[in-house]
């Protein structure tokens, strides 16, 4: 199969879909791997490292998409990516479509098959999302060093009581494929101490805090009623080398399977399909429409 790895263009996203060691295994299996020039630079992998394992380096995104059947990237397609995607592409990346209805429609219109990392489930676990969530959680804590932290479950009365006293609140709620439920409403936020910090790791799925809106590392925070909000949608992108290595390790077995004609027999990958042939496939996502 022809496998393409475009350069990530989301703001300050330094990860790469597959590191050279993973590409080497794909090449050894007889697949042709193409990567956009400089796609691995921010993760510490220059073009020559890919060339050394048999990957073809192409000058731009258009060339990668044109040559490839399977597209492996990190974040959801950005507006400039969409013009290169075709109906015969198999797209494998983080999608978080519940938070991006316009992107969902665009992918439906293209007619391709799109599998979300976050919806690939194996025995009740999310093997691709989990390691990135762990990194995001650690980064979230580091963004607010020096504050006192209380961990709790989202019971309404307990939340109301604790939020009023908290210096730092890290929110992480997930229902695979669905938009994150709001567990912290606007009134709760308004009762928090001025100068406190709220980090919404669920922002990729729409956020579990009513006052959350997506931010980027170019402008990562904003203040609402005295509470500093941190809601970057690609938190692990700040540690690209480590994150790329961990992500690539989790991805490789699935990419190897996707590169085979019988990948449709794989329950985890089929269960991770979000859209296909112009239709919304994932049941959790279809309830959002």
Automatic annotation (TrEMBL):
Keyword list, A-Z: Oxidoreductase
Domain Alanine dehydrogenase/pyridine nucleotide transhydrogenase NAD(H)-binding intervals: 119-231
GO CC, alphabetical: plasma membrane
Pfam families: AlaDh_PNT_C, AlaDh_PNT_N
Gene Ontology molecular function, alphabetical: alanine dehydrogenase activity
UniProt record, GO biological process: L-alanine catabolic process
Entries under SUPFAM superfamilies matching the protein: Formate/glycerate dehydrogenase catalytic domain-like, NAD(P)-binding Rossmann-fold domains
Signal peptide: none
Name listed for the protein in its UniProt record: alanine dehydrogenase
């Amino acid at each position: 199969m022809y496998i393409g790895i475009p350069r990530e263009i989301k703001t300050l996203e330094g990860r790469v879909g597959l590191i050279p060691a993973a590409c080497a295994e794909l090449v050894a299996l007889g697949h042709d791997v193409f990567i956009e020039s400089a796609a691995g630079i921010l993760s510490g992998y220059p073009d020559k490292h890919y060339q050394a394992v048999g990957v073809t380096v192409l000058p731009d995104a258009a060339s990668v998409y044109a040559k490839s059947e399977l597209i492996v990237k990190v974040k959801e397609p950005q507006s400039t990516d969409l013009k290169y995607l075709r109906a015969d592409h198999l797209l494998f990346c983080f999608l978080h479509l519940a938070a991006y209805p316009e992107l969902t429609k665009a992918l439906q219109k293209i007619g391709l098959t799109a599998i979300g990392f976050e919806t690939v489930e194996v025995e009740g676990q999310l093997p691709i999302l989990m390691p990135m969530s762990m990194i995001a959680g650690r980064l979230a804590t580091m963004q607010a060093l020096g504050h006192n932290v209380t961990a709790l479950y989202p019971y309404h009365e307990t939340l109301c009581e604790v939020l009023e006293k908290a210096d730092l609140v890290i929110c992480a709620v997930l229902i695979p494929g669905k938009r994150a439920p709001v567990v912290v409403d606007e009134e709760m936020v308004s009762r928090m101490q001025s100068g406190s910090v709220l980090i919404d790791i669920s922002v990729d799925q729409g956020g579990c805090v009513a006052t959350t809106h997506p931010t980027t590392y170019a402008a990562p925070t904003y203040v609402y009623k005295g509470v500093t909000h941190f809601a970057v949608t690609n938190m692990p992108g700040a540690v690209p080398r480590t994150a790329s290595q961990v992500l690539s390790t989790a991805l490789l077995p699935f990419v190897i399977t996707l590169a085979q004609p019988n990948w449709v027999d794989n329950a985890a990958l089929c269960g991770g399909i979000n859209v296909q042939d112009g239709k919304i496939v994932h049941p959790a996502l279809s309830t959002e429409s």
